[in-house]
Amino acid sequence: MGTPSDAQPVSVGPADLPVFCPNPAMPLWSSHPRVFLDVSQTGAARCPYCGTEYRLEGGARAGHH
User: Fold this and answer.
1) What secondary structure does DSSP assign to 1-65, as a single string?
2) Contact status, residue 44 vs residue 55, Cβ threshold 8 Å
3) Which residue from 11, 51, 54, 62 has the fewest beta carbons nearer than 10 Å?
4) Residues 6 or more apart whose Cβ sits within 8 Å of residue 34
5) Mean pLDDT of 33-54
C-alpha cells in the first residue's frame, strides 16, 4: 500500500487558500499536527509530515496575497 507521498498531488484553487495539511478529505488515521503550506509563491508545496504535495491551479500568482 502506498504512502500519501506516492499519491497524485492535491490540486487546490484560490478559494481553498490558505492550504493546510492534513486536509479535510484525509482519513482520521492519517492525522498529524496541522501545518499551513504556502503554495502562492512557487505554485506547490509538500507537507513536512506526510509528504502530500499540494499544487495551486494555474501555478504561482505574482503579487497575490
Assistant:
1) ---GGGSPPEEE-GGGPSEEES-TTS-GGG----EEE--TTTSEEE-TTT--EEEETT---TT--
2) yes
3) 62
4) 20, 21, 22
5) 95
CB half-sphere exposure, 45, CA atoms < 13 A: 18
**β-bridge partners, 46:** 53
Q: Please give the tally of structural domains in the chain.
A: 1
Entry pTM: 0.77
Whole-angstrom distance, CA of residue 65 vs CA of residue 63: 6
40-59 average pLDDT score: 94
Instruction: Look at residue 30 and tell me if it is in a domain.
Output: no
- Residue 47 burial (C-beta neighbours within 10 Å; 0-12, 13-18, 19+): buried
